[in-house]
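Reading a protein record of the kind used here takes only a little practice. To see the layout at work, look at the sequence and tokens printed below.
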Amino acid sequence: MAAWDRRGALRLVALQDRAAADRLLGAMDEQTRMASWHLVSAGGEVRSAGRGVAPLLRLLPGGAPAARLAAAAPTLTDAAYRFVAGHRSALGRLVTRGARERADRRLRRSSF
């Protein structure tokens, strides 16, 4: 997502950054916090896992069509997210070292 976010609309925060995560996610318990990713709007609304996909896509250049698809089928979007999250170790093996290094650089530039 960091590569797609050419406008700089997103600020990435590691869940392990306790101060920032506490500020953004408030009273969310640790187990829920660590179970997924979370999108926090400027107004403080939190959407997690597949429920955050459509609003995230709306923030990205050219993401509106995919956001409409995700919003039209939220249960399917959530199931797809859960599938990918549940298989991230296997899927991660498909990512090249160069791609991981580029992603790490982007994450460092776009994080709080």
Q: What stands out?
A: Residues 18-110 form one domain. The two ends are 15 Å apart (CA to CA). DSSP finds seven helices and two strands in the chain.
